[in-house]
Amino acid sequence: MHITDQDRTVCMGESDAWLQCLQDLPLGAASTTAPEPCLPYQESFLKCAAAWRAVPGNGGKKLRGKHQGEAPSQCRQIACCYESCMQEAQLNSTQCTHIMRGFKTCVNAMFLSEYIT
Questions:
Q1: CA-to-CA distance for 88 and 2, rounded, in angstroms?
Q2: Which residues touch 64 (CB under 8 Å, ≥6 apart)?
Q3: pLDDT of residue 15
Q4: Which among 46, 51, 73, 94 is most buried, taking Cβ atoms within 10 Å?
Q5: Which residues fall within 8 angstroms of residue 24, CB to CB, at 6 or more apart?
Q6: CA-CA distance, 99 to 30, in Å (whole number)?
Q7: How far apart are CA 57 and CA 62, in angstroms?
Q8: How far is residue 65's CA from residue 75's CA, in Å, rounded to a whole number?
Q9: Cis peptide, bond prior to residue 26, ω within 30 of zero
Q10: Which pTM value belongs to this model?
């Protein structure tokens, strides 16, 4: 399926708002916040992705970066946020699970799989 530049930027506003919320959470937020404060932003992003997928021809599109194995543009900033969190947490991944969950959710919505091939 042909991926357009417009496809690559779909739901970027929702993704940016979600990212901002994830960045504002303290380290270890996954274990200390219930319900997760970023859930409304995540749901807004997922609704946007579902609406885009409902357009004829978009249902099976697997969005990813321009290069194989690269995350979709909507998810790349969340991956960078995870890297920053890992540095701040001195590589203690349990402190950053809320961001990794967000990244996997984003990739699953855009690429239709948790892992990009």
A1: 39
A2: 70, 71, 72, 110, 111, 116
A3: 96
A4: 73
A5: none
A6: 9
A7: 11
A8: 9
A9: no
A10: 0.87
